[in-house]
Amino acid sequence: MGKRVAIVGAGVSGLASIKCCLEEGLEPTCFERSDDLGGLWRFTEHVEEGRASLYESVVSNSCKEMSCYSDFPFPEDYPNYVPNSQFLEYLKMYANHFNLLKHIQFKTKVCSVTKCSDFTVSGQWEVVTLHKEKQESAIFDAVMVCTGFLTNPYLPLDSFPGINAFKGQYFHSRQYKHPDIFKDKRVLVIGMGNSGTDIAVEASHLAKKVFLSTTGGAWVISRIFDSGYPWDMVFMTRFQNMLRNSLPTPIVTWLMARKINNWLNHANYGLMPDDRTQLKEFVLNDELPGRIITGKVFIRPSIKEVKENSVIFNNTSKEEPIDIIVFATGYTFAFPFLDESVVKVEDGQASLYKYIFPANLQKSTLAIIGLIKPLGSMIPTGETQARWAVRVLKGVNKLPPPNVMIEEVNSRKENKPGWFGLCYCKALQADYITYIDELLTYINAKPNLFSMLLMDPHLALTVFFGPCSPYQFRLTGPGKWEGARNAIMTQWDRTFKVTKVRVVQKSLSPFESFLKLFSFLALLVAIFLIFL
């Protein structure tokens, strides 16, 4: 009989963890406090305690080819950027396809997860749950926590003098569901992350006036990149990642700023980030520039003072009348069912080795999945974390001694910028491809480009120069998927299937044919130099 594993949460990471446990012969039991799976991607009209909340119009920021599970592509007729309702359908397809539902206990809240008295020997945990007002206790050999980090709203009202005197309405973006409440109102959205920007743009279609307040600015990009391609299929390639990590940080940030400003000069729109060295999460919004240039959204600096029916922004004494304030100020995270001696959260971080394992445990039988902010999709990131974590929990893979893990965690917490590549210095940030490859190396599943170049050069070139799609993570090693190669070679077909509905015949001129041949030869020379 395999080890019993308790999984907390049936969102994207929880589902992946169930499947990974089953693949390794373990016995998973997933506890989900709500009545359905999906986590963040399940829209409800009301906010549910302990669960991430989204608004009705949410669309994925990562395209379908880059944000699917590594052995389960999205349906080819899905749009490239997926609305939340279809994303939830996809998660249900995944759960049904791999027969995961029978391992989930819905409407079951995890009250506590504590070490057993013989933990130093057995590594076991006592899990106390609540279902229909009945409390139960069970012993598990391991625990995987998949609750995410978007459940506890951060609402720093003390930072806004006069907010208690404000007679209008104010709330955190977590409470927002529909734009109807903004009709004919003067709206202020504080915080220029993805949620804040989305809400400001939506409000601008109904509101009398909309202000978007930002302290440090942000890089705003479109989902549609060069030649109409999805942004992450162009940006997230092994070749580009290698190039970025080979260049000094100032050069990389300058090149990135230049590229982004080619689409939208951020300085002219009041959006330019103050700190252009440390990478801040991109804001994906196709509409914002149009709303600004047509006077529907007004960008403003931070708030100096809030009055009864107005606000005063910094750098000005003018009062702006306001009816509704939306605080899109982010989230904090915590694990209320775990003792601080197991996982302690400080300054927006937890002492987790490789963002997964508590570094101070005598037995590595507890894993946190999905507590990371990669510059890439969370689904393949959480899934890859789960693949490695399950093999550690099973005992196939070993972790280094606690002192080595603690040293690595402390080094990361210092947030020292490197000399090369993009600067990932914010809490929980990580270089997507580098991080995934590191975890794949631990389970011997990282694609070997050198041997691939000899055995299957077409695939090798596609893997290196093309999008780093999740299918690459199933080409070899444990959990190898026979359909991975075909999925990689046909990813652009699925991308254009839903957009290229009107085919226009185009004949190539001799000059264009010559250019294509010349480009191909130049590519071969570049590959030879890279792998020399």
TrEMBL record:
One of its GO terms (cellular component) is endoplasmic reticulum membrane. Pfam families: FMO-like (PF00743). Keywords: Endoplasmic reticulum, FAD, Flavoprotein, Membrane, Monooxygenase, NADP, Oxidoreductase, Transmembrane, Transmembrane helix. One of its GO terms (biological process) is energy homeostasis. Its EC number is 1.14.13.148, 1.14.13.8. InterPro entries: FAD/NAD-bd_sf (IPR036188), Flavin_mOase (IPR000960), Flavin_mOase-like (IPR020946), Flavin_mOase_1 (IPR002253), FMO-like (IPR050346). Coiled coil: none annotated. It is found in: Endoplasmic reticulum membrane. The keyword Membrane applies. Gene3D superfamilies: FAD/NAD(P)-binding domain (3.50.50.60). SUPFAM superfamilies: FAD/NAD(P)-binding domain. It is a single-pass membrane protein. It catalyses: N,N-dimethylaniline + NADPH + O2 + H(+) = N,N-dimethylaniline N-oxide + NADP(+) + H2O; trimethylamine + NADPH + O2 = trimethylamine N-oxide + NADP(+) + H2O; hypotaurine + NADPH + O2 + H(+) = taurine + NADP(+) + H2O; hypotaurine + NADH + O2 + H(+) = taurine + NAD(+) + H2O. It comes from the Eukaryota. One of its GO terms (molecular function) is N,N-dimethylaniline monooxygenase activity. Its cofactor is FAD. Broad spectrum monooxygenase that catalyzes the oxygenation of a wide variety of nitrogen- and sulfur-containing compounds including xenobiotics. Catalyzes the S-oxygenation of hypotaurine to produce taurine, an organic osmolyte involved in cell volume regulation as well as a variety of cytoprotective and developmental processes. Belongs to the FMO family. This is Dimethylaniline monooxygenase [N-oxide-forming].
